[in-house]
Amino acid sequence: MPRPSVLLSKDNGCQVGRVADVVGQVKSAEGPARSQVVPAGAELWLGSPYAVLVVSPQGELVAANSAAAGLLPDAVLGAPVPLPWLLHAHRQGEVHCFGPIEDRQFTADATVLASGGTAWWLVDDTERAAVAADLAVERERTAFLAEASNVLLSSLNVERCMRATVELAARHLADAAVVVGPAVGRRIPVTSCGPDGTADHRMVAADPAVVAGLAEALQGFPPVPSRWIDPATVPDWLTAPGFAGPVGSVVITPLPGHGVPAGALVLLRRRDQRDFSETDEIFARLFAARAGAALSAARLYSEQADITATLMSALLPPRLHQVDGVEFAGGYRASAHNELVGGDFYDVHPGAGEGEESLVVLGDVCGKGLAAAVLTGKIRNTLHALTSLAADHQHVLRLLNETLLETGSTRFATAVLASVARVGDRVRLRLTSAGHPRPLVVRADGRVEEIATSGTLIGALPDIESSTVEAHLAPGETCLLYTDGVTEARGGPLGEELFGEERLHAVLAECAGMPAEAVVERVQMLTSQWIGQRGHDDVAVVAITAPRRARREAGVQP
Amino acid sequence: MTNTADLTGQRDRLWAAVSGGEEHAATEVVVAAVEAGTDVEAVLLDVVAPVQAKVGAEWAANRITVAQEHTATAINDRVIAALALHPASRRTPSLGHVAVACVDGEWHALPARLLAEVLRLRGWRVDFLGAQVPTPHLIAHLHQRGPDALALSSSIPTRLPTAHATISACQSTGIPVVAGGAAFGVDGRYARLLGADAWAPDARAAADLLADGLARIDPAAANQPVDDLPHLADQEYTLVTRSTSQLVKQVVADLPEWAGYDDRQRQHAAEDIVRTVEFLATALYVDDDTLFTEHVRWSAAILAARGVGTSVIETGLRSLCAQMTDFPRAKRMLVSAVHRLQEDPT
Q: Residues of A with CB below 8 A from B142's CB?
């Protein structure tokens, strides 16, 4: 087929060639008037603002419009199409492809011509491609921020939060990430993570002012832009183990907290990597905002938890053990399911020396919850101070009563005191109840006795009375002190029945000969099962047991 | 070097002391075993643990009373404490940090105690939280101390729903959970179902597993308990649990033997019925019929050892079945259990 060699011109002129004849034909169905508006011949495609290339089946450029001429000024008719990506697609028989021309992106769609050649219609896709790329980056960043939020908010532990922060940052934002915390004395906590993905935490004796921007970030000043930070000033302690090679680019951003910065986040890239761009910096700040919020919450929680634990430790029920040859065991369950303390309490205060009586107290402050627990703390402290006067229970109770009345609290309490001493292989008890349920004794043969002591409750009236009763325990026998949370527990297999005193007696009868801990566990377990999932009062029990075997060797602890 | 004959002898002597309620003799047996060269871990797992298992089995067979069972357990507990104070048990922590706790409501802390001791002996820093730990306290502990893993123990299947909530809550703090104990099934099937990161059949396996390292879960993947168990949407578990009282009252009304029972027998019978309903609810929770039928079979064996026939249980099951007209899964389980009883007369 002859190849017309035609000079391509850049203006809108018509190029005449064989292909043009075919392409220019437009048939109108609407009559002569219409057909005069629609151009005949090649005017339409040749003048199109979109580049069109007509390509032979072998891949040679046969014709082009002026827009195409403008795009490809060096193209020669008859030579292969000077766009490798288009030529490849054309030869593969594809009808759609895309690729670059100079610095723009183009898509190309093919229409097959009756003559056998192909017309490729090019559209500048640069903007759309750029938007799509931006969207992909945004989506990735959003997904990362969502993941970061989940990970960071899940932990209220400060160290775990810092580790999570650097691990996330090292994975997505930089070659190494370091979190610097507020100074503790002369040292600063530094948590870092390098390319290997595991966080490292240590305390470093160093001065943050060494690096421009770090001291400012720790004090809450606006962040110093990355381009102002000289990478050479980054000290070794501010990189991560596993971060190889010189620092090329640094971002330092504060971790915002509740009014006070929670620390600073330092991101490092190696010199052979791309520098941090402004968008990188902005994104790092978004991440830092979340990390800072999570870290502050964790710090606040830790501080509160520490304070609570310290204050609570004085209010928790004590662990009891053997004192001077007498077994003691105690069990406690606060009424509110999630609380550790409530209005019931117990203590064992050993006597001043060997052979001296130990003082056991068990009591019940009216009400529940933390406020009642605070009052139990006062009562326990007072009784502890009065241990040396415990030879006279009435005196002790009078003093306690006065103390409570003086506090001005409207709460009153019931209590039972037991002075306990080992005499030979038996245990002597002096028991006094101040408005409290009577102590019970389980004998070796399973009989259960009530000790007939009674008295006025404390903290309500100016004058109180009580009576002290003496009892003895033979080896294996147990005296049980308990609060009314046991007997007034509601529940049982059939629903709303009271546990009651009779049932408690029956349970104790089965506990003859059991060690103190086992008695306490049995009573607690059955009370707990009785209550099930229902609400209940505080429950406290103390068991005083005479050991079954007298230890031959004195003073030997297992 | 300890051989099996030595261990058998030690077990027998410990059983004799423990079943006789003799704490000092029991302590002397284990101390002597350690001083004769038995490894402390072997004393705990091959002497104390089997003796404790025997305590449970003897009670089930009605050869020891419940008082003896409690006493024996208390003594075993003291024996473990005594061993921990022995110089042979002294260790410096060199491995990681692990917390050990029982599911809230669990009273059987001994298996967890044994695990805690074994881990400590192997060089772990152990926070032993024991039994009766309310879940919020467990979570607070995990936040504050940040251990590498939590070992969660449960002996009784009826605690499985609570275990599920506990496992999810712990994992949402980013800490992996290893489950263990009889409650999770003899092959750990319920541990997998409830989303635990791992399961171990015994203390040695748990210690080995922890040494290999438990992967820290990605908290982004944490989900709600109900996502693991879609069958809960039919509400059968919820409704059976909430109407336990009514169900029990009706069974009592349908039991001809009830009239002839004294107070104590009535108490026991009522407790047995409640326990049966609880097991039914748990079986509905994990959607596993065998959990329920196994409980029924075990109950029948317990009663048989005490000379009580199984007709009472069968009547109870039929009464429950009649009350479960709107609950197809529950009904299916009850029918299965009745068949199991009939096939397996004790």
A: 157
* Contact residues on chain A for B86, CB-CB shorter than 8 A: none
User: Closest Cα of chain B to A399: distance in Å?
Assistant: 37
pLDDT tens track, chain A, 558 positions: 444 434 444 444 444 444 444 344 444 444 455 556 777 778 888 888 999 999 999 889 999 999 999 999 888 888 998 999 999 999 999 999 999 999 999 999 999 988 888 999 999 999 999 999 999 989 998 999 888 888 888 888 888 899 999 999 998 899 999 999 888 888 999 999 998 888 889 999 988 888 888 988 888 888 888 888 888 888 888 988 888 878 899 999 999 887 778 899 999 999 888 888 888 998 999 999 999 999 999 988 988 888 888 888 888 888 888 888 899 999 998 887 667 788 999 999 998 877 789 999 999 999 888 888 889 999 999 999 999 999 999 999 999 999 999 887 788 999 999 999 999 999 999 999 999 999 999 999 999 999 999 999 999 999 999 999 999 999 999 999 999 999 999 998 888 889 999 999 999 999 998 989 899 999 999 998 898 878 888 899 999 999 886 444 344 444
Helices (H), A155-266: 158-172, 214-219
| Facing residue for A515 by CB, picked from B27, B71, B143 | B71
Q: Which residues of A touch B222 (CB under 8 A)?
A: 150, 154
CB < 8 Å from A in window 177-196 of B: none
d(CA B258, CA B251): 10
- Coil, helix or strand for A45? helix
Task: Mutation target for B interface from A316, A494, A510, A552: give the one with most B CBs within 10 A.
Answer: A494
Is B85 in contact with B31 (CB distance < 8 Å)?
Answer: no
Interface list for A 106-165 with B (CB within 8 A): 146-147, 150-151, 154-157, 159-160, 164
Report CA torsion sign: A135, A141, A147, A152: negative
Count of Cβ atoms closer than 10 Å to residue B325 Cβ = 9
* Number of CB atoms found within 10 A of residue A373's CB: 24
The answer to whether A269 faces chain B, any CB pair under 8 Å, is: no
Q: Do A518 and B249 touch (CB under 8 A)?
A: no
Q: How far apart are CA A115 and CA A1, in angstroms?
A: 12
